[in-house]
Each structure stands twice: as C-alpha cells, then as structure tokens.
Amino acid sequence: MEKKIEKYVELAVKIGINLQQGQILVINSPVETADFTRKIVEAAYKNGAKEVIVHWNDEICGKYKYLYGAEELFENYPQWQVESVMEYMRKGAAFLSVYASDPELLKDVEQNKIAKYQRARSRALKEHYERIMNNYNQWCVVSVPTDAWAGKIFPELTKEESKGKLWNLIFSIVRADKENPIEEWKKHLNSLKENMNYLNKKKFKKLIYKNSLGTNLEIGLPEGHIWTAGGETSKEGVYFVANMPTEEIFTLPKKDEVNGIVYSSKPFSYGGNLIENFSLTFKDGKVVDFSAKKGKETLEQLLKSDEGSSYLGEVALVPYDSPISNSNTIFYNTLFDENASCHLALGQAYPICLENGSEMDESQLREKGINISMVHEDFMVGTSDLEVIGIDHLGNETLIMKNGNFVFTEK
Hints:
alpha+beta; 20 strands; 9-stranded antiparallel β-sheet; metal ion binding; 12 helices; protease; aminopeptidase activity
C-alpha cells in the first residue's frame, strides 16, 4: 500500500497541482489525514516548493461549534482566516484540498446555523472563489479515506477493512495502482480532450435530457459557451488538473433557459447532511418546485442561499461506463460521485466556460446570461438509460449520449 500512496502523492503534486519551482503550496487538510498530508508536504518541498503551508481542520470540533457555540459566531467569518488564504493567493500560491468528510456529520445540527455560516463564509471568501473559478491560481482536490467516510460506504466491514477497501478503490480510480500512473494520466487527459473538442465544434444551442426516472429537461447554452475537460491552464500558463479523479466534460448553461424536471440519481452531501431521491422543476431557469425523500429541509436551505442558488451554473457529461461508475459504489463524496455520473450544479457558473468570460466582471457575465451565486453545488443525474440530445442553431438534432454513454459518430 505504501508504494501506491507514494504514487498517489506524486500524481497530486506533479499532475494535479503541477507545482512549479519556487512556488508556494497551501494545503487544506483534515487532521485525520495528517499522515497523507505530511507526505504531500515532503514531496512538495522535494519538487521545489518555496514554502508549504498547511491549514488543518477538525470536523468534530466544527460540529461542537455548531452544537454549543454562541449564535453570533455564525453571522461572520473571521477576517484572519480570510487573510490567511488571500495573502498566499495574491503571491501566486497553488492550493491543494484534501476532501474527506463525514457525509452526515451535521445531521443533528440546526440547519439555520449551517446556512448562516456558509453564507458568511462565502461572502468573506468571495475574492478567493472568484480567483479559483477563473483559474488565477492552480488548484486541486483529492480524497483519502477517513474512518467515518469509509464506514458510511462499507458499514458491514470493520474500521480497518472499510478503510483498506476504500484505499484500494481510490488507487484504482486515480490510476495509482498502475506501473506508470503519470503516463496513464496523460493518456486519459488526451482522451477527454478529444471528446471536448468534438462538443466545442458542434456549438449546440441547447441540450435535452431524458431517462426512466422521469427526467425531461431542456437546457439552453449561451452563445460562445466552451466545453472544458481534464486539465486547465492558470493565468500564469501552468497546466493543472483541478479534480483527481476527473471524468467529466463540462460547460455552463444560459441562466434563464432551463425548463422541465430532473431527478437525482445519487445522494449528495451538503452542509454535513445527505439529500436523497430528490427532484427539481425548472421554469425559465429557476427552480419553482422541488421534492426530496430525505434532506428536504437541507435542499430548501441550499436553494435559498442567494438569488442565484436556485439556477443552474454547470452542465457536465460523464459516461456511465467509467472507472468510478463501474465500481458500483456510492461514495457520498461529490469529488467521486460527480465523476461517476452526468451532473448539474446549482449556483455559480465557471466564467472560463465562456469565450473571454474570465475577463468579464459580474455585470458583463449577467448580460451574457451567466449565473452568479455564492454557492456551487453539484448533484448527480446520470443513469444507465440517460439520453442526451444536442440541438444546434438550425434545429438539427445530434444524439450525444444513449444508455448513459457517448455515441459520437464523428470526432
């Protein structure tokens, strides 16, 4: 296992972040993943990092704050924490997040407290999120097993068995079990790029989603939209991979041109709570009705986050026949589940998915029909029978996906 962990660390530093000589690296990490994070720190220095800063967090202590903290704690986000991020961001640092949380940690916490604090955090870190979504700095998200997360996925196993099984799944999915993972990633990124180029060539006006769950959704795409996939390029010209793993090809929708109903295909965790078996009904872009068998109050809080949180900000295509999906595992972790399934996102759109979008301010993006929000939350809609049709400006239809997989007739 140690050898595979070393390969995973190397992938995160050299392919994910693509750390440059003399660059600062900022790591956000749970205390429970300290061993893995220390390996990242060492590898970063060995690969030329000028400095490595680790921002540790403990979700259990965070839960205690919600349960016992004074009400005013949730109205504001500490300025020192903002500056601890922005100081390094303005210096051109790269940012690596180790995302491994208990998907139901906050199920006993008052939802209003969570919503208040998330809004305060989003407002305070607005510049940070804008820089990340416009690729001013390299950034990457990876995951490693924790007791709570592994136990949620494999409740029938012992603590050691569940973590060991999850480690092996992650190694396989991120290709750390291959003899030369870096070369495998280069091949994978090239494959994603081919499909991305095909979609960009088609210049669709809208997409139509249908499946047996009841999804029947039409999504308009703005003029000048760009599909992107795999790796991205920072403002300094550094190629990096924001998500490890990644299987998606994504773009942005036109804010007020989403109509119909969509049903979720997997649970997703938001604010430490699971939302399951839910549907969203859209009219002129906005969610006008919703349902959920579990987590309806949490979903409602998400939709009420701000004006843009009830509109879509991302459209992502992922083949059903992919390594993560083929594992037949629900990960309760957006990084993995979104790369196992076609998904959509409520909230902020990525300006990089619009021609010259990263050079536009908010008012210019709004004029182009691009959604602006403090949140960006992915939810999964892909199924084994999902059909996606693209329609161009002349009304011509092209079948993009059938039975959940791409059916490109040309490249």
